Amino acid sequence: MNAAPADQIRLLDVQALDVRLQQLAHKRKALPEHAEIESLTKDLTQLKDLLVAAQTEESDCAREQTKAEQDVDQVRQRAVRDQQRLDSGAVTSPKDLENLQREIASLAKRQGDLEDVVLEVMERRESAQERVGELTERVESVQAKIDDATARRDAAFEEIDGEATTVTKEREVVSGSVPADLLKLYDKLREKEGGVGAARLYQRRCEGCRLELNITELNEVRAAAPDAVVRCENCRRILVRTSESGL
């Protein structure tokens, strides 16, 4: 393949722009906010799971408290009715009076036991409510950190993407002045060789593979016509000659 020396040198400009685009893509992918958001999101997921568990416990305690209070109320109402019967004088049989008094005493003990249950459930519910409040604050705090990190990441995205757009447009202009067949070869090599398709020959060294050309290779390059598209024998990239090639 042949191409004017000026076109080959412009290929180095295209390569420089492609390298910059690679750097921007890497920078976008390697932003520290990515790891920060990932770590915080894991923490948030765990906290939300704990919060759901605490809310479930509080809800269970609320139902248990309601049931226990209803049991207390039922026993209290029955005790009131028995006491009213006793006070009314309607029960005259000594045996019935004894049974009624015994039942009233039993109901009083039962009520006391149930009220103890209510207090125990209320204490557990209060503890669960405190846990819910604590976890809610922690969830809100972590979410705020995620929102902050996300805003910083998006701002960085905007800056990087803006520069990438500018560089892409510049590449379109520069590559448009490079012969199509030369650009096609360059793009093919760039994809194959880790993003570098053309390299400068500087002081007898290929800047693509960083290897110095041996005497035979140098002689071949020296003998090549100025418009010949030379390839590095080591990495097979397009080797662009300049006044600093040391030939």
From TrEMBL:
Keywords: Coiled coil
Organism domain of life: Bacteria
Species for this entry: Streptomyces solicavernae
Segments forming domain CT398-like coiled coil hairpin: 14-194
Domain named C4-type zinc ribbon: residues: 205-239
InterPro entries, alphabetized: CT398_CC_hairpin (IPR056003), Oxidative_Scav/Glycosyltrans (IPR052376), Zf-RING_7 (IPR003743)
Coiled coil: 97-159
PANTHER family: PHOSPHOLIPASE C-BETA-2-RELATED (PTHR39082), SCAVENGER RECEPTOR CLASS A MEMBER 3 (PTHR39082:SF1)
Record field: compositional bias (Basic and acidic residues): 60-85
Matching Pfam families: CT398_CC (PF24481), Zn_ribbon_9 (PF02591)
Protein name per the record: C4-type zinc ribbon domain-containing protein
Region (Disordered): 60-92
Gene3D superfamilies named among the record's database cross-references: 1.10.287.1490
Keyword Coiled coil recorded: yes
